[in-house]
Amino acid sequence: MKKLIFFLLITLTLSACALKTERLQNQADAWKPGLGEIMGVIQQHHAKLYYSAKAGNWVLAEYQVGEIQEGLETTVRLYPQFKEVNELSVLVPAATKDDMENLSKTVKKKNLDEFLVAYNKLTNSCNACHNAANRGFIVIQTPTAFEFSNQKFEP
């Protein structure tokens, strides 16, 4: 009889923990930014990276590279799967890792011509990733007009 009561208590405790865990997960999911919001912020940093390098502000450019990397890592952590893309956690790093590393090295060299080549490669990788994720209608490009008039980009 004691074993049965002990078993029932353990079962009830585990059930309560499972319900609480599910409730906490639902609350966390409600506060989680959407993938589109995360990608929109990455896109802003992508543009700011371009402006920074063009202005010769390599410290700010290096910061923007870090922000892009942080956004990509957040994407993988929060959305390892997204809709019909079962392995977003594999796709994003496969598409961007080498180009992000190359871009980071190029920014440290402070060479605009090399930067532009690396920047374009990353941009192309982003678009290839969008295509692979069935989001080919989202096409990223080098900025054609200045978007952030409220931030100084010159060093």
Describe the structure.
The protein has a domain of about 100 residues: Four Helix Bundle (Hemerythrin (Met), subunit A) (Up-down Bundle). The chain contains 5 helices and no strands. α2 runs antiparallel to α3, α2 runs antiparallel to α5 and α3 runs antiparallel to α4. The longest helix is centred in the first third of the chain and has 30 residues.
The fraction of residues assigned to DSSP E strands is under 5%
| CATH topology term of the domain at 34-132 | Four Helix Bundle (Hemerythrin (Met), subunit A)
Ranges where pLDDT stays below 50 over 5 or more residues in a row are none
Dominant shape: elongated
Helix content: over 70%
Q: Could you tell me the radius of gyration in angstroms?
A: 22 Å
CATH class of the domain at 34-132, please? Mainly Alpha
* Number of helical segments with 4 or more residues: 5
How widely separated are the two ends? 77 Å
**Largest sheet: number of strands, sense, barrel closure:** none
Average predicted confidence as pLDDT = 88
Oligomeric grouping of the chains: single chain
